[in-house]
Amino acid sequence: MVKFKTNFFNIALNTISITILVSNWALVLFYYFDLPNIINSHYNILGEPDNSGNKIIILLLPILSLITYMGFSYLEKRPHLLNYPVPVNTKNSKRLASIAIKAIILIKLIVLLLFLFLSYTMVFNNLESSSSMNNSILMFFVGLIVFTLVYFINKMYKAK
Q1: Among 19, 34, 29, which residue's Cα sits nearest to residue 126?
Q2: 38-43 and 49-54 as β-strands: parallel, antiparallel, unpaired?
Q3: Among positive and negative, which fits the CA dihedral 100, 105, 107, 108?
Q4: 2-54, pLDDT tens digit by residue?
Q5: Residue 54, strand partner residues
Q6: Helix or strand or coil: residue 38?
Q7: Smallest Cα–Cα separation from 62: which of 31, 39, 36?
Q8: How would DSSP label each residue in 58-75?
Q9: Alpha helices of the chain — where are they, by DSSP H?
Q10: What confidence score (pLDDT) does residue 1 get?
Q11: Distance between CA 14 and CA 86 in Å, rounded?
Q12: Is the whole-model pTM more than 0.85?
């Protein structure tokens, strides 16, 4: 396994990711006891609630955030486990792994932001008895993830 030097970009984005993860937990735990016992727990494609359940379900979002953080962090340290869109050889392995690490760190950040948005929306929609979710923001996150993947895959093709 090749060790990679960490650079400022990677450290900064990982620090932001940890901050987002902690913020997600803090948000949910801070407001947990103020939430009604039954909350809207799922929204349809129009952003309208279509399922409700016990408020403990809201803890699922920070738990999934933690699992996501741990999974991406594991892969970030082991780029040799990843599948690459181009053949990997001794000439390009370090370059491709460096690109993959940046992609993983950035996607981890975006996914954690998505979970924070979902937690925020669920907490405040249920506290204010609001019944809608802004789907355009969800689509923005999905688009951002797709754009990031396409960008880094393209970068790997150029680095081969």
Answers
A1: 34
A2: antiparallel
A3: positive
A4: 566 678 989 999 999 999 999 999 999 999 999 999 988 888 887 778 888 89
A5: 38
A6: strand
A7: 31
A8: GGHHHHHHHHHHHHHHHH
A9: 8-31, 60-77, 93-127, 135-159
A10: 53
A11: 27
A12: yes
